[in-house]
Write a structure and sequence with these properties.
Distance between the termini: 11 Å
Number of strands: 5
CATH class: Alpha Beta
Bound molecules: adenosine-5'-diphosphate, magnesium ion
Radius of gyration: 16 Å
Number of domains: 1
Structural class: alpha/beta
Number of helices: 9
CATH architecture: 3-Layer(aba) Sandwich
Helix content: 55-70%
């Protein structure tokens, strides 16, 4: 099973992904959790840092290509083998993040992002079994981000106009790609119950 949790920074993706991981592990499944573009591979850490923490002023298209490269590495080396063994892959983010941040946020053509992704990755990657988008008000989101520490990543540090464009993108992406919008404002346990209620056992 392949589950994706999308949403802006601070919405609670990692928190919910961890809970899902524990849920499936308790059922005796092999589970791997990814945090695109990062995952448990040294090249993933390097790609993550190159895109998000070095402060390079990368072209938006370069961001698309580097995120896609990171996805190819994670898919081929981690996700695909686990799925083939009947395990569960839980990913915080997917290429919908690139549509939101590089497409709606940075102005790269959305159809180009979709074409590049589909050239690079299989249908299974673009069609997870479950796709959730967590949403909360900007106020709550920023408070959660602050609670976690100082903003250190490139897209976290971008101005509020950029964040607004990304925020507004997610409902459109949900509609275009049939993803489930989850109100992430309630407590961690309540949000998790909501997500669990959408899984067919
Ligand atoms: P993301 O991975 O989407 O950036 P995190 O899972 O890291 O978000 O959550 C950001 C912060 O908010 C963390 O400190 C986390 O403990 C907290 N948090 C997550 N979900 C909730 C929630 N439903 N209610 C209150 N705090 C939350
Ligand atoms: Mg996270």
């Amino acid at each position: 099973m392949y589950i994706v949790i999308e949403g802006q920074d601070g919405t609670g993706k990692s928190t919910q992904a961890e809970l899902l991981k524990k849920l499936f592990e308790a059922k005796g499944k092999e589970v791997v959790m990814l945090e695109e573009p990062d995952g448990d591979l040294p090249q993933s850490h390097d790609l993550h840092d190159m895109i998000l923490t070095r402060g390079y002023d990368l072209e938006p298209l370069t961001n698309v290509l580097l995120f896609t490269a990171a996805r190819v590495e994670l898919w081929k080396k981690i996700a695909e083998p686990v799925l083939k063994r009947g395990g569960v892959v839980i990913s915080a983010r997917n290429y919908w993040s690139t549509l939101a941040y590089q497409g709606y946020g940075e102005g790269v053509s959305k159809s180009k992002i979709i074409r590049i992704t589909k050239e690079a990755l299989p249908e299974r990657y673009t069609h997870p079994d479950y796709g959730f988008i967590l949403t909360v008000s900007d106020e709550v989101r920023l408070e959660r981000q602050r609670g976690r520490g100082k903003a250190t990543e490139t897209f976290e540090k971008k101005p509020s106009e950029f964040q607004q464009r990304v925020n507004a993108a997610y409902p459109k992406i949900a509609k275009d790609f049939g993803l489930m919008m989850i109100d992430a404002a309630p407590s961690i346990e309540e949000v998790f119950s909501e997500i669990k209620s959408k899984l067919n056992d």
